[in-house]
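hey m, so remember when u said the tokens were messed up on ur end? i reran from scratch. heres the input so u can diff it against urs
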Amino acid sequence: MADERTRYFRRLGRLRRSARRWSVTAGGLAGAAAVLTPYAGLGLPDAAWAAGAGGALVLTAWRWLDLRALAAQPAPPALDPAETAARSRARLVAAVERLPVGPGVLAEVRRVRSRVALRGTSAAEPWARLDRAALTLAGMTSRLTGLAGPAVPEAAAADRSLRDLAGRVAAVERTLRLAPPDARPPLAEAHAALAEQLESGVAAYERLVVAAAGYVAEDSRPGVEPLAATRLIEATDLLHGVSSALAELRTVDPAPLRYP
């Protein structure tokens, strides 16, 4: 969507073009009426020419008045370049999200951008482990039903929290490199505490993924065979029984026929 300044100049240009068109139209109709109107009086066709010329002159005057009124207003201030770029990115993201594969593409772009932003910091390795665990859990989400259902939103919330924590660890670490020597001890202590929280959180998330995999494995291996496998086994046993019976019938000699 265009900003206020762009809309202002677009409207100004439209009014200017409209005023010029109506000026040309009114001049042409007035000239035609002056030439075609007979000196003896006005007929019905001549009245139509005159009415068209008068209406065009009125509309022309209105257009020029609207143009002068709009031109007298101050133009809205120009947007900041950063704000303009942000709006352009928002429009691009909205256009991509409307595509069938748009959400997946945007998620991958955000993931890669986050990984690049953490490169060279101590948060890069825990973030990579968290990312692998999250992708693994995403492949099992559809099977985590029943008692395991509440684990899915909890894992999503933990994933967001840990990614935010990784960003804070990286930010504090970069600040620590630039801090003067007398300000480094408290920053180093805060960085160590955040890094420890990140490490313990990622380890807990990995244990959650392992537990989810165990649930999926046990859920797909019940005590009885699945219904489809059971039916196949029953059909196989039936076919074996029929084939055995046919084989026995072929080995039995037919009894001699007796006539009364």
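this time it looks ok to me. Confidence is low (pLDDT under 50) at residues 252-260. if urs says something different then somethings off w ur setup not the seq
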